[in-house]
C-alpha cells in the first residue's frame, strides 16, 4: 500500500501509484476482516486515485478470499455466470483481434472461476495459462487440464504474448508492481488487456457528500466501490499513470457500463438483505432495480475502464 513518510507534521500518506500526497477522506466498515476495521480510504491530490491506505498483506487477502468452500464458490459464480461469461467472450474477441500470429501463450492474471480460460482455449492456439493465488480456483483449473501458476514469477521473462486482467487490477496489493511483473513476462510488443472499475461521476459525488457530513446514503454506494476486496478505485489518470510507469504505452482506453452482478443482487447485498420480511425485501428490490434501470439506460453510469496497453519496446 502507499508508503508513509515522516514530516515535521507527523505521518504523510503517499499515493501508491504516482507518489503524490494522498489525503485521508473517509472510513468504511470492513465486516470481512476484523483486524483491519474500519478501512481508511485516501484520495491522491494529483491523480485522484481513491485507495485503501491501511497496510494489507497477502495473508489478509488469503483470509478474505479463502473463507468460502466449494459450495460457496459455486453459489457465487452461478449468480454471476451470465455477466462473467459475457465479459470473457468480449475479452477473447478483442484480444484475438489484436494478437499477431504467435506460439507464445496468453496469461489470465487472477482468473477466478476460469471463464476467460475456457472461452479462449475453445478457440485453439496459442496456449492460455491461468494465474491465481486462491486454492479453490487453482484446483478447478488444473482439473480441467489448464496450465496454472500461483505467482507470475513462475513464468520466464518474455514468455507470453499477452496478459488479461478481468476485474483484477482493483484487487492486487501493489498495482504498479503487478503491472511491472506482467511487463516482465511479456515478449516485446506484448499486450495487457484490463477491465477494472473506474471512478465515475457518481463516485466523486458520493465522496464529496461524505466530506460534507452527508454520509449514510453515499457510504452505501462507496462500500460497493472501495473495500478490502476493491483496494483501489481507479481514476482514469491513475490507471494510465500506473501502466505507463510500468513500461506500457496505452493504445485504447474506453469508459463503459459493465456490471459484475445482476442489479438486484447489488441491491440485496448492500441494502435489503436485513429486511426482516422476505416478501417486503423482494418488493423493495424490484422497485429499486426499476429506478436504477433508468440512469443505466440513459448511459449515466460508465463504471468500468476497458484498456489495451502494449509493452514499450
Based on CA atoms alone, the radius of gyration comes out at 20 Å
Please give the share of residues in helix.
Answer: 25-40%
For this structure, what is the CATH class? Alpha Beta
User: How many angstroms does the end-to-end distance come to?
Assistant: 29 Å
Tally of individual domains: 1
The geometry reads as globular
- What's the CATH architecture name? 3-Layer(aba) Sandwich
Characterization of the model:
The chain is built from 10 helices and 13 strands. By secondary structure, it is α/β, with parallel strands linked by helices. Helix content is 39%, strand content 23%. α5 links the parallel β9 and β10. The N terminus is likely disordered. The radius of gyration is 20 Å and the shape is globular. The chain has a single domain, classed as 3-Layer(aba) Sandwich (Rossmann fold), CATH 3.40.50.150. The strands form 3 sheets. Strands 8-7-6-9-10-13-12 form a 7-stranded mixed β-sheet, sandwiched between helices. The chain has a 4-stranded antiparallel β-sheet with strand order 3-4-5-11, covered by helices on one side. A two-stranded antiparallel ribbon has the order 1-2. α9 packs across α10.
Amino acid at each position: 500500500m502507499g508508503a508513509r513518510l515522516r514530516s515535521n507534521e507527523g505521518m504523510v500518506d503517499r499515493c501508491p501509484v504516482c507518489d503524490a500526497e494522498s489525503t485521508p477522506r473517509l472510513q468504511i466498515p470492513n465486516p470481512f476482516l476484523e483486524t483491519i476495521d474500519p478501512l481508511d480510504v485516501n484520495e491522491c491530490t494529483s491523480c485522484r486515485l481513491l485507495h485503501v491506505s491501511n497496510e494489507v498483506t497477502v495473508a489478509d487477502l488469503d483470509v478474505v478470499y479463502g473463507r468460502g468452500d466449494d459450495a460457496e464458490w459455486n453459489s457465487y459464480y452461478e449468480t454471476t455466470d451470465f455477466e462473467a461469461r459475457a465479459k470473457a467472450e468480449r475479452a477473447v474477441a478483442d484480444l484475438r483481434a489484436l494478437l499477431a500470429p504467435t506460439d507464445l501463450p496468453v496469461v489470465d492474471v487472477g482468473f477466478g472461476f476460469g471463464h476467460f480460460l475456457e472461452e479462449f482455449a475453445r478457440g485453439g492456439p496459442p496456449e492460455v495459462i491461468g494465474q491465481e493465488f486462491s486454492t479453490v480456483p487453482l484446483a478447478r483449473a488444473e482439473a480441467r487440464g489448464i496450465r496454472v501458476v500461483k505467482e507470475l514469477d513462475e513464468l520466464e521473462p518474455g514468455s507470453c504474448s499477452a496478459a488479461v486482467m478481468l476485474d483484477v487490477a482493483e484487487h492486487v496489493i501493489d498495482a504498479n508492481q503487478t503491472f511491472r511483473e506482467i511487463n516482465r513476462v511479456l515478449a516485446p510488443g506484448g499486450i495487457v488487456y484490463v477491465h477494472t472499475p473506474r471512478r465515475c461521476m457518481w463516485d466523486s459525488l458520493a465522496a464529496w457528500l461524505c466530506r460534507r457530513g452527508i454520509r449514510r446514503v453515499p457510504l452505501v454506494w462507496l462500500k460497493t466501490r472501495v473495500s478490502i476486496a476493491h483496494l483501489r478505485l481507479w481514476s482514469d489518470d491513475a490507471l494510465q499513470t500506473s501502466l505507463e510507469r510500468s513500461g506500457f504505452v496505452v493504445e485504447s482506453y474506453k469508459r463503459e457500463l459493465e456490471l459484475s452482478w445482476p442489479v438486484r443482487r447489488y441491491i440485496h447485498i448492500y441494502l435489503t438483505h436485513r429486511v426482516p420480511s422476505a416478501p417486503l425485501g423482494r418488493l423493495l428490490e424490484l422497485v429499486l432495480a426499476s429506478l436504477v434501470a433508468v440512469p443505466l439506460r440513459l448511459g449515466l453510469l460508465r463504471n468500468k475502464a476497458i484498456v489495451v496497453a502494449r509493452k514499450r519496446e
